[in-house]
Amino acid sequence: MPSDNPFHVPVDEEVFALRDEEAQRKRAEREQAKQQHVWEKGVKKNPSAAMMAELAGSDGSAALQQSKLNLVAAATRDRRKEKEHMGEFIAKKREMFLVQMSLDTKRAEIRKLEERAQQREEALRKSEQMLEEDALRFDQFLKDNDQKAVQAIKRAEAETKAKSEKVQEIKKLNMQITQIKSEMSKFEEQLEDCRKYKAFLDKLTPTEYFEEQERLRQQRRVLRKQAKLAIRQEEVNIQFELDRAARLAAEAAEATKKGKKARSRKEKEEEEAARLAAEKAGTAPKLTLDDVSDDEEPEEEKEVPMYFKTPQQLLDIFTALEESNLFLIQNSQETEAALEELRTKFAETRTHMEAESESLKVQIDHLKSGIAVERDHSAVLAERAGRRGGVAEQEQTLEALALKVSEVYRAIFPEADASVSTLQMLTNIEAQLEELLGEIETMPQEEVEIAERAKEKERRTRAREIKLELAIKAQEERIQRSIRRAQEPVKRREGKPIMFRSVLQVRKKKVVVKSDYNEEDDVNFYLGMGDD
Fold first, then answer.
1. What's the CA gap between 109 and 12, in Å, rounded?
2. Tell me, what's the pLDDT at 1?
């Protein structure tokens, strides 16, 4: 049974029933809010502001009062009729306060959760709205993009069409250009042919005709300048008269300004003299042909008219040229015959000179080889003379050298006087060599080089043979010395050999004496000889 005591704490079933009812009501409100459209939903308020508005409003106060009455009714429903003590009453009050406080706390927490849920729902709603707006904008963007794509395709088609038209036009223009170029090349060829013909005809034209045309052109030029000079002189005269009239008018105006003042006799005489001088000098300057510039000559006057008017003129000139050519052909044939005769004589002379030059070259080579042999022999003799010394041996060497020089001299000059001195012989030989070398320089270079190579090869062969003979002689001498040493009795030494203190070898510095003049090198260079 429900208790009549208002301070009686309701049972847990009632409290949970109230909570379930409240939760069910909130759930129903949320479901209803979910079913509403965007424009039907309200705006969530701040929980504290909503609470204050709820407390301030009449509806809020009525709901609060109703909830309190429900609590009081629940508390007094099963109220007991018996009396209670003050301590129990206070304890019950305390329990009621704690229950009420816990309920308030739970309600506040529930309210906060509901507000958070509403905020989340509001955020979801705004997100949905933004998504819808984004979807609308995206749809609009797609539509615009489609329109732009269509327009771009249309423009591309138009540009492609225009491009194809331009390409066709360019092809036509290129064909026209090619055709024009071919025509121009054809005309240029024709013009070149005409120029060649004109040059040919100008060559056939007599020079007197060109001189006459130049004289006529100069006369026309002088006539043009004279006509221009007359016009220019007339203009100068008119300008001079105008200037003089203006000057006289200015003088008259100045005299009018001064008035009719009495003038002295001296001033009148001066004015009269000035007037006479002005009348004497009152003629316009005369122009000459040099003062007139000659304008550019017209094109039709620059071209010299053709000398040939009829084909017969060309035929006459060709006939005259043919006659002169026949005369020239006859002269050329005579000249060729004379030239052939000269060539024959030149070939004979050349053959004779080549034979002489060959013989002279052979003599020169013999002389060179003899000189080389004598030089080697003189070197050997000089070496021996240096080792042994002695006036007698030097005299013998000089006598042998004089004999060799006389042999060479007699070989070159068979009919020469034998009483010539050795130095004079060498001078004559040198002069003959210079003469022969001069003749060789006049010969063809290729033949001279071939002969030089042949003679050089022969000289080297001869030099090698001489060296081989000398080497054989030296070998024979060494063999003879070896035989003599082998035949000598053997000397036996007794005891140990005497050992001397070793002496360190001292490197001697070689003193190179540079000489600006070497007589042998000078002779070799002068005679055109070289050692192998």
1. 20
2. 46
